[in-house]
Amino acid sequence: MVIGIIGAGASGMAAALAAAEEPANRVIIMERQARVGKKLSATGNGRCNLTNIHSDKMGYHGQDPEFVRPAMKAFDVQATMDWFLSLGLYTVVEDWGRVYPYSDQANSVVDVLRYALEKPNIQLLTGFEVQKVKKTEQGFRVEGMEDTVFCDKLIVACGGLAGTKLGGSMSGYKLLRSFGHKCTKLRPSLVQLKSSWPLCASLKGVRAQCKAEIFRDGVLHSWSDGELQFTEYGLSGPVIFEVSRDACQGGGDWVCRLDFLPGKEESWLRAQLLRRRETHWKAEDLLTGILHNRLGRVIVQSVGISGYVPIAQLEDEEIAAVCAAVKGFEVNLTEPMGMDSAQVTAGGIVTEEFDPATMESRIVPGLYACGEVLDIDGDCGGYNLQWAWSSGRAAGLHAGGKL
Ligand SMILES: Cc1cc2nc3c(=O)[nH]c(=O)nc-3n(C[C@H](O)[C@H](O)[C@H](O)COP(=O)(O)OP(=O)(O)OC[C@H]3O[C@@H](n4cnc5c(N)ncnc54)[C@H](O)[C@@H]3O)c2cc1C
Fold first, then answer.
1. What are the tens digits of pLDDT across the range 259-305?
2. What is the pLDDT of residue 403?
3. For residue 256, is pLDDT > 90?
4. 137-171: burial string, b at 16+ Cβ within 10 Å, e else
5. What is the residue with the minimal CA distance to atom 37 of ligand 1?
6. Best label site of 5, 135, 181, 273, fewest CB within 10 Å?
7. Ligand 1 pocket test, candidate residues 169, 379, 384, most atoms within 8 A of CB
8. What residues are in contact with ligand 1 under a 6 Å CB criterion?
9. Are residues 176 and 310 located together in one domain of the fold?
10. 166 and 91 share a domain?
């Protein structure tokens, strides 16, 4: 049997290796870029957070998040780590259950997959951008700019629209829609959020541990804790990615409230700051040694205290105002950054049109889809790649007739 796979990203490579486990199968992967796994090599800030040990307990979104369950059960986190070890990749578990290659290099993940694809029954066609797909009597006709591939089964593993500079595109959605599949609204997720707060830019590059709560018209939309990073345009970092899904969508006033000392009560902070009245320090140093210097100064300034006043001269109310700002600093939000900056696409091809155990289309027999092109997106921390591995493997095994 000939199995065609469109896309040699995370899910496409997992599908190819699964389909090729049956030696009688011939697997043809078509990849429009010059090399495989281009996006994969940029994941996790170049370290590739390839799974999360908590992803079996969910952390997925879409119209039907339960859709992920059968594939994730059949190829769970442990099976994924064992599979990577069998390919030659040694992994480590870090904070929050995040799994990385021990080498700390995303390229190691791409390398072991690339080497594994070097099998007699796998043919890799790079620089092959699929333009059109058609169902034939025997199977599928897959047209590139110059060549045409015929296959019995076809797996669409084109990824989503997020990370456009790394290969994200509308291609997979268009190809699947040409078979009659429907697509939900696409939005950026795991993305930076923009703010018009003028002091944001002055904090560019500052990182802080915090609890972030997002409010729409005063109603809590989402919250998380972890690392925040200020950027020229607004807020970034894992804690913001976690709360970014659907933030600033659909109108209303959006605000991010930041608690820069989530592990401490306001009374503890007040006691520390009141003791500083015995020093010769200036107000701009009120939070020195507790928060990043630049952040501390901006917080003091934000409650209207001049940085040059000696701390000894500050009123109780002024110190209380600084404490309140540290525990609940509000930054307005305007919009998410675009798809080019997003790590994942929220929305995609409607999952109820696919069998969750096999990833086969319920509209076109012999057609499969896996990975981000489907209406599934995961939390920050390795969830999206785990979905790519699990769904890719399910599609490959079933298209390849191994199950
Ligand atoms: C900067 C960044 C960092 C990220 N970090 C993490 C992380 O640390 N952990 C995590 O879990 N997730 C992370 N993600 C998300 C994760 O990379 C994706 O969810 C995952 O790669 C999706 O896998 P996929 O196989 O569906 O798509 P992709 O990996 O995007 O692969 C799709 C492939 O299909 C090819 N293709 C598309 N259209 C065609 C066509 N018409 N013809 C031929 N080929 C085509 C593309 O060139 C691409 O190679 C990150 C994403 C980005 C952008």
1. 999 999 999 999 999 999 999 999 999 999 999 999 999 999 999 99
2. 66
3. yes
4. eebbbbebeeeebebbbbbbbbbbbbbeebbbbeb
5. 158
6. 135
7. 384
8. 6-12, 30-33, 38-40, 42-44, 48-49, 129-130, 157-159, 162-163, 166-167, 169, 171-172, 343-344, 371-373, 382-385, 388
9. no
10. yes
